[in-house]
Write a structure and sequence with these properties.
The structure holds two protein chains of two kinds. Chain A is an alpha/beta fold. Chain A is built from eleven helices and 13 strands. Chain A has a six-stranded mixed beta sheet, with helices on both faces. In chain A, helix 2 packs across helix 3, helix 2 runs parallel beside helix 4 and helix 7 packs across helix 11. Chain B is mainly alpha-helical. Chain B folds into two domains: about 200 residues, no CATH class; about 240 residues, no CATH class. In chain B, about 65% of the residues lie in helices and about 5% in strands. In chain B, helix 3 packs across helix 8, helix 10 runs antiparallel to helix 18 and helix 12 runs antiparallel to helix 13. The radius of gyration of chain B is 32 Å and the shape is elongated. The chains are: A alpha/beta, B mainly alpha.
């Protein structure tokens, strides 16, 4: 096993004149959960397909489990595509066993494992039901079980949470955590930040085919400075003049009271800011220290290009690594 | 390769182990048996057609009666042959005394059987060799029966009057009385006028005999009466020329000894027999089978690829196998489905003819088997069969890959079907003139090379032409497989089907 099961170097994918993925580089470490975040159409699925050698990059180099092509190491990879389905007339257990066999398991072993997984995930009674008779949630579970049945060491899940109800989302989160505990490396793409925030060791944000950030949540927050939420009747300018304050943004007003989002410089201490404000006689009915959420970071990085130039935060994060 | 076979096996299982296919397999022999039984029943229950003759000449009614009797005797003899084939072992039947042993159906043999004691004597002769449980021989019922007609007919003085009397019977408003006293509908009336005879007798046009019947579809009696009158007039003419009547019957019974030979065989084996005929028919049969299979499995490939595409299964598959392996697996699996049906019928036919002991079946199946399994051409047929299958199956796969529904596929299917069936009208020309211009032309069109070569293989076409056209076909197939393979790979993952004009773009290397 390599320490970096997945590495992309300067990978570009063009369809005619359209560039779907633009000079993308990143690497995934052994045994981590790696979040692949980006808005719709950011190039996530294309990148994952290039990882799996389902489509070929126009430029750049892909390395997966020590090989230049996923084809030769397919049996060690489990892939759950964003758009997924099952053969309607096939039984649940046969579906799981079929995909496991395609990925190298022997017939008997695949069947045994399919039964065990269905039992484990509460679908034992439906093992011999045809897929067309399963509920949507059950079918999604079967698809997921088909992805892990051959016990891959690298799991690539494209939007695995989409379409799942909250209970199944929780089951999936648990499954991902269990897989990691079992020593597997997991890459999953999503645009639901809560899952990424809870599960990922590191993540990558891409938008319009370009990398906007790669690193841990702490590193992302560090790159985003410190924020303080303040409620006061004083004007914004009174806070702007305090030392260490980069910007003050009015969030809302109610009568005389205003809510401000105060951004401090990287090296500024929020306690100093509080003392300075008290000394200046600024009235405050609320003072709350807040780190940027992944949601804020995602919107800032992957949202409108004008607001967040792509290169800078990414560079900052890389420097912090 | 394991994955390819796994995919092929799944495809095969999906169709062959489906309820529909199994029901068809069970229903087919049942249906066949039911059809045979129904035909037998219909034959047995065929109504005896009653007819009336009004003959002003008093000469020809007997001639028609004789012909009715003669036909019945011939069909009884035919039934005897079938009875022996079904219930007596072939070699034992061959050893029977002359007129009873299986042989051709002829007036002479009818006469010989009559002289030898009729079918009662036949049954006695055959009793020892019949298989256990064989029913007694039953002569078929006579198909036609002449009845006297209503008494008023005797008094009719003209054809018009006779017709007037018979009309209510012919229209089934009234029933006729049969010799056994029962009532029956009148099927037809034959009216023969005074002066009926050979045409242009004494330079004058002779009056025509008339056949009246409300049933316009069953012309058996009409033909019988026509033949009987023809024969009667010919006999009269022969007599006028000084020949005895019987001499003309002898002349009519003459059949020239005539055999066909093929020059590519040694003298003693050169005479054409049934197996030669079947052998020459084999390419046409295989070509026909090829078309049926292509048509049948083409639809399977199409619906199946559309299912994988629209059900979003294909990307999971493509993370486990390459697009090439997926295509190959499908082609092999569906080809096996296509060959299962003819294989089952072939094996079923063999088993049927072996267990039922129908030696009549042996005489057809034997040469078929011989020409299938001993002919050096079999390998050639198989090679071209699979080439044609691969070419057309790839086209269907590519159509499936660019369609989300059968409706999407329709717009491509029309032209493809036209392409598949276009050579059909020319195949007869190739069959009859295997080294002619059309045959040559079709041979050089790569998608029709397999058809043309299969049709021509037995006729020793110029070797250079076959090798050249086959090389061209293989080159074309490789280009086509690459081209359509790219379309398949590139289109199968697109969530919405490409427009027709974009399909060509998908065949480019960098499209995916």
């Amino acid at each position: 096993m390599t320490d970096l099961p997945v590495q992309l170097e300067n990978v570009t994918k063009r369809y005619g004149t359209f560039t779907a993925v633009d000079d993308l580089s990143f690497s995934v470490k052994q045994g981590e959960i790696y979040g692949f975040l980006g808005p719709n159409g950011a190039g996530k699925t294309t990148t994952l397909r290039m990882l799996l050698d389902i489509v070929q990059p126009s430029e750049g180099r892909v390395s997966i489990l020590g090989s230049n092509s996923a084809i030769s190491v397919r049996r060690r990879i489990g892939y759950l595509p964003e758009e997924r389905g099952l053969y309607r007339k096939m039984k649940a257990v046969d579906s799981i066993a079929y995909f496991a066999r395609l990925r190298g398991l022997s017939g008997g072993k695949a069947k045994k494992r399919a039964y065990a997984l269905l039992e484990e995930f509460g679908l034992g009674a439906f093992a011999r039901s045809k897929c067309e008779a399963l509920s949507k949630g059950m079918a999604q579970k079967v698809q997921l079980l088909a992805t892990i049945a051959h016990e891959p060491e690298l799991l690539i899940l494209d939007e695995p949470f989409s379409g799942l109800d909250p209970i199944n989302q929780q089951t999936l989160e648990q499954l991902i955590a269990d897989q990691r505990a079992g020593g597997r490396t997991i890459i999953f793409s999503t645009h639901v930040m809560q899952h990424a925030e809870r599960l990922c060791d590191r993540f990558l944000i891409i938008a319009k085919g370009q990398k906007r950030f790669e690193g841990t949540l702490a590193e992302a927050r560090a790159g985003f400075g410190r924020h303080i939420h303040v409620r006061s009747s004083a004007p914004a300018s009174a806070f702007e003049s305090l030392p260490g304050v980069l910007s003050v943004r009015l969030e809302r007003s109610a009568g005389d009271e205003h809510d401000y989002d105060v951004e401090l410089a990287d090296n500024a201490d929020p306690q100093d800011f509080l003392r300075q404000a008290m000394a200046a006689g600024l009235p405050m009915t609320r003072f709350e220290q807040a780190g940027a959420t992944l949601h804020d970071i995602f919107v800032a990085l992957a949202g409108d290009e004008e607001e967040a130039p792509p290169a800078q935060p990414a560079r900052r994060a890389e420097a912090a690594e | 390769m394991k994955q390819v076979l796994l995919i092929a096996w799944r495809e095969y299982k999906q169709y062959v182990f489906s309820r529909g296919f199994l029901i068809f397999l069970v229903m087919f022999p049942v249906g066949l048996a039911a059809l045979t039984a129904a035909l037998g029943l219909a034959e047995r229950n065929k109504p005896v057609r009653a007819f009336v003759i009004y003959d002003q000449t008093d000469q020809y009614a007997d001639e028609i009666d004789r012909e009715v009797e003669r036909r019945h005797a011939l069909s009884t003899l035919n039934a005897w042959n079938l009875y022996l084939a079904a219930y007596a072992p072939a070699d034992a039947a061959e050893a029977l005394p002359e007129p009873f042993a299986p042989d051709g159906v002829s007036d002479a043999r009818v006469k010989a059987i009559e002289d030898a004691g009729g079918y009662e004597a036949g049954e006695a002769a055959v009793a020892d060799i019949l298989r256990p449980g064989a029913p007694p021989f039953e002569a078929p019922r006579a198909q036609f029966e002449r009845v006297a007609g209503p008494p008023a007919l005797q008094d009719a003085t003209s054809l018009e009057e006779a017709e007037e009397i018979l009309r209510p019977y012919l229209l089934e408003e009234r029933k006729i009385v049969r010799p056994d006293g029962s009532a029956a509908p009148l099927f037809a009336a034959v009216l023969i006028p005074e002066g009926f005879g050979p045409p242009q007798q004494n330079g004058e046009e002779a009056p025509s005999a008339q056949f009246w019947s409300r049933n316009l579809t069953d012309t058996a009696l009409e033909d019988l009466v026509g033949n009987a009158l023809d024969a009667a007039l010919k006999r009269e003419a022969a007599e006028a020329l000084g020949l005895p009547r019987a001499a003309l019957d002898d002349v009519a019974a003459i059949s020239a000894p005539f055999d066909a030979y093929r020059p590519d065989r040694e003298a003693e084996e050169a005479q054409l027999d049934m197996s030669d005929r079947i052998e020459t028919l084999m390419p046409a049969a295989l070509t026909y089978m090829l078309l049926v299979i292509i048509f049948g499995v083409g639809n399977l490939l199409l619906t199946n690829t559309i299912e994988e595409r629209s059900n979003k299964i294909v990307e999971i598959l493509l993370s486990s196998v390459t697009a090439g392996q997926l295509m190959m697996g499908k082609l092999i699996g569906i080809a096996a489905v296509g060959l299962t049906m003819p294989a089952i019928f072939l094996v079923g036919g063999l088993a049927g003819s072996a267990t039922l002991g129908a030696d009549a079946g042996e005489s057809v199946m034997g040469p078929v088997i011989a020409s299938l399994f001993t002919s050096p051409l079999l390998l050639i047929y198989l090679f071209y069969f699979f080439c044609a299958y691969a070419i057309f199956a790839m086209i269907f796969l590519a159509i499936g890959a660019v369609s989300n529904s059968l409706q999407d596929a329709q717009s491509y299917m029309g032209p493809v079907m036209l392409l598949v069936f276009a050579p059909l009208p020319f195949m007869m020309m190739v069959f009859q003139n295997p080294n002619g211009f059309i045959a040559s032309l079709l041979t050089w069109i790569p998608i029709y090379t397999p058809y043309a070569v299969m049709m021509r293989a037995a006729a020793d076409p110029p070797l250079w032409e076959i090798i050249g056209a086959t090389a061209l076909m293989l080159a074309f197939a490789i280009v086509l497989v690459r081209f359509l393979g790219r379309i398949f790979r590139n289109a199968i993952l697109q969530s919405s089907p490409p427009k027709a004009r974009e399909v060509w773009r998908l065949a480019r290397k960098d499209a995916a």
